[in-house]
Each structure stands twice: as structure tokens, then as C-alpha cells.
Amino acid sequence: MKKLVLVLSSLILASCGAENEDVDNMKQIDQIFNPYNSSDMPGAALMIIQDGETIVQKGYGIADFEQNIPVTSKTNFRLASVTKQFTSMSILQLIEKGQLSLATNLTDVFPDFPSYGEAITIKHLLQHTSGLWDYEDMVPSSQTRQVKDKDVLNYMMGIEETYFPVGDKYQYSNTAYAMLTQVLEKITGMAFRDYLRVNIFEPLDMSTSLAYENGINEVPNRAFGYTIEDEGILLTDQSSFSAVLGDGGIYTNLEDLFKWDQALYTEKLISKNYLDMAFTNQKNNDGEMIDYGFGWRIEKYKEMDILYHTGSSIGFRNILYRIPAKNFTAVILTNRDQGGEFSTLDIVHKVVDLYY
Prior knowledge:
Elements: H1 2-32, E1 44-50, E2 53-60, E3 62-64, E4 69-70, E5 77-78, H2 84-96, H3 106-109, H4 122-127, H5 149-157, H6 174-188, H7 192-201, E6 210-211, E7 226-229, E8 232-235, E9 250-252, H8 254-263, H9 272-278, E10 297-301, E11 304-313, E12 316-323, E13 328-334, H10 343-355
Antiparallel strand pairs: 1-2, 1-13, 3-4, 5-9, 6-9, 7-8, 10-11, 11-12, 12-13
Helix pairs in contact: 1-10, 2-6, 5-6
């Protein structure tokens, strides 16, 4: 009887200790996100997943000032470059089905493509070693409409060389991921937005996720992007490049991203062999390791292997950050144009430090 009492007492103490730790962590998390926790400021959405369970899911601040709507777990943010992991998944699905290969080059898909495309393979595009010119620098100053993925392909058709010999080095390329959507559309005959819906969003029941195209679909529960200036909060939701889908055009929310994250531990969308490719450091022509896989940055933090991608565009700063060996994921979505590309990485490390 005494042993039973001791066991029960130990369990109660352990439970109380865990609850106290959770409360303490939540207080510190709220402190980290205090700059976003205001009814008159653009906000943020935070999710922490541990062992397949959502242990934190919380919104801070305002998603839509015009209608005074707060951020919640259902608020849909523009992912910006976090989109690249979905683009990569789409291409890897086609490769697994035999419709493409990593060795397929641009002239295989587009026979009229300039000759330099013979050296650029799908693998080069996925791992950012193609050397393709940045489309952002090629938009005519007189152009008033937004750039689309098809425009990026057309810009590349007018170029005769790359920045450097293909495969020689890593250089992050939004152009490459816009080109991947055009490869997909040519191979499948489907619009990229429809491919995502049929092959990723619907199978995972990501019911409110979409690749947004103005006039074609609408974003429910939408967070609008803002910039905080001395004179006030300005709506800065779209730029000339916000309509390019492959490098940054998906909108989604915490609840749907939970489904996405958990699917990456399974073979629901693709076999483990191809997932492992996406999560493996690639190499340049000299065999030098690149801190990038296919649509994922691959680095270490506190000696732990991490997979992540940030997303930065006008009005938005985001990150999806995974520690697979710990079954741990943190997602931060914000609708303010504040901080650099990796500002959310600094924030997520403050969160990770509470747990590890």
C-alpha cells in the first residue's frame, strides 16, 4: 500500500511539474510575442507541435484593419518563400510518377528555350544552382500589371546566358521556382493552383489553403500585409511580384500547416525515398555541400539537425521550422513588413530555447 501511495505521489508531482513548466513556457512565449500582441498592430500566429500534438496555437494582433479582425489559428497568411517546399513536393511527385526526372533539362520541356537551358536540369532548379537571372531585375519600369510565372519563363527566353556556369555554386533563385511551375504546367496540362489543390491540399484536407490568383480565387479569413511607419500603419499587401506563385504565392493557416507538417512524417504524398532527397544537403559541381535540399534549408542548431524555410515578402515575414529527430515543429506567420529575410529565424530560436 505504501508503494502505491509513493507511486501516485510521484505521478502527481511529475504532473504538477510539467503543468508548471508549460505555464512558465507560455508566459515566456507571450513575452517574446509581446510586440505583436496589440489590438492596434499587425499581428502574428504561432504554432508549436510536439510528438504529433499541438501544444501551442495562438494568434496575436490584427489580421485585417479595415474590418478589425484579429489573428487566429484560422487566419490565412501569404507564405512567401515557405511556398517553395510545396513547389518542390509537386515536382518530386511528378518525378516519382515518371513524368519527369531530376536530369530533365529546360530544353527537354521547352524545345524553343535558348541553348543555355540544355545545361539546366530540374535538380539545378530545385537546389538553387541554376544561375538563372533574377526576374525581379527584368520587369520593365513601364509595366503596371503584376508579374506572373508565365512572364518569368518569357523573360528567360530572352536571355542567352546564366550568372555563372550551371551547377558551380548555390545562389538562391526565385526565378528557378517560378520556372518549376511552368515545367509542371507543361508536363501535366494543369494550372499550378489546380495541381496543388488536387494533389496536396485535398489529400491532406487543407481545406482553406490555395495558390492565390486575383480574379480567379479568393482567400478566406485573409491576413493583409502591412508596414509600420512613423505616420501610421500602411497597407502594403501586394507588390509587382506577389502574383508569382511558384516562389511565394500560397496562402494558408496554422490548422492546415499542422496537417502538412504531420504528413511529412508519412508517405501520404510521396515515398520516403523522395522525401529524403528533399531533406538532404545537395552539392555543387565541386562536391561542396550546400545548406539546402529541395525546397528546404538544412542546417544545425544546438547540434540538432533542422529543416526550415523562411518567407519574406512585402507585408509578411514567416517561418516553418522542424526538428524531425525531436518530432518538434514551430510555425510563425506574421503580417507586417518588419525585419529581414531571417528575422523570424531569430524569433523561432528564442522559442526553441525554451524547450531545448
